Amino acid sequence: MAHETALPxxxxxxAEGDGLRTENPSAQSRSYPYWAWLVILLxxxxxxxxxxxxxREQVRMAGAEMMNDLQARYLVGLSQxxxxxxxxxxxxRDAFGGDSLSRGLRWVLLLSDAGRHDAAASELDxxxxxxxxxxxxxxxxxxxxxxxxxxxxxxxxxLQGLSPEHVRxxxxxxxxxxxxxxxxxxxxxxxxxxxxxxxxxxxxGSFMGLSVVAILALFVGFGLLVxxxxxxxxxxxRFRLQCPTGTGGYxxxxxxxxxxxxxxxNLGVGLVVPSSFTLGASGVCSGLSLLxxxxxxxxxxxxxxxxxxxxxxWPDQTSREILFGGLGYVGGLPVLLVGMLLTFVLMRLQSxxxxxxxxxxxxxxxxxxxxxxxxxxxxxxxxxxTVVLLVPITEEIMFRGALYRHLREAFGGWGKAFSVVxxxxxxxxxxxxxxxxxxxxxxxxxxxxxVLAILREWRSALIAPIVMHMIVNGVTTSLVLxxxx
Length: 485
Prior knowledge:
It contains 20 helices and no strands. By secondary structure, it is mainly alpha-helical. The two termini are 33 Å apart.
């Protein structure tokens, strides 16, 4: 977040109100923010409830499977790059998390593939004592992995020493690692194993490169964040958003209306549109939902005033606003890191509370769009990329535009400093909780929203928040395509 032309020293939160009265108040009818908030809370509760009862379990399981495959590819690739199996020998058993039987068996497959047969046998004995290993399905899975470990110990080819049913079960249950495990005797002479090892090396190499870039970006971001705080505290930089009284209630109504319309349109898409086109249709619905912006105009607020108060005004130096959006992303990385750490804490806590289970995966905060991005056809991926780059426009207009503008006025009676902080926290929490990543994803999503709200408060116009939101989605999309594909 960069330095601007020095301004006269003044409070960080200058007083609002003088000369900032709403235009044409006589032309406006009474607003109903309390009713609007009732609708917002009911809609949010409904969305969260439907997410938990809908395909959320399938999304969670798909996310856990993808993360397990990713972890296995990374460990195998790292051992290949280092030229030794010591990486696997020194890695902790819970590399796949907790006491989950499924993850424990993945670790056995890695140990067996690396030639650590005694360790694999010991691990299998420990897993057999878990209470979750009593069901026929789990017992069969244990038996399949035990058979594979014994075949590897004896030096037999798994595809010959295992029954076809056990080969099928291992490949189905353990994905990438299962396909690797049944080729453990073939070495680089096997085209299948050579391809799998190549994927593993690319994954490990990508992680190593991305780690270096991330560390450098965090250092730069921390420096930008410190500079931003110093400039803000000394008055060299100030928040520009001004909130005249009288129109905030209309924006609460607008957000409530948009919330309902957006939810209804997407619900209709899920019921009517073929699954291969639902992502693209969701993007269209996102754009159509912006028609609700005419609500405050219909209620009597001049269109130009609505445009200005929602941050839709076009600044003279647009390129500078775009630059601030990019700097906001880099400067916000330390905040995002805090959110990510809190998310990991919640994931770990949830995994511990779930107890040992075949399906006791940590509830990874994965958006449903991630799997289509990673495994979908080119058409599905094209739709997904389009959606993740265009939806930020709608979300910023409504969350940092309408909702944030309403909250700033609603909390204005407690002073501007309180108004800013409370508005940032409330809007960010609502933004995070309605996303489909679940409760463990709230800290990370809220961290993103907090930085976006600060950009809105600082720049007033929405260009910088929109640009930063697009960068967040674009970086996430690029990482998914790079790592999972």
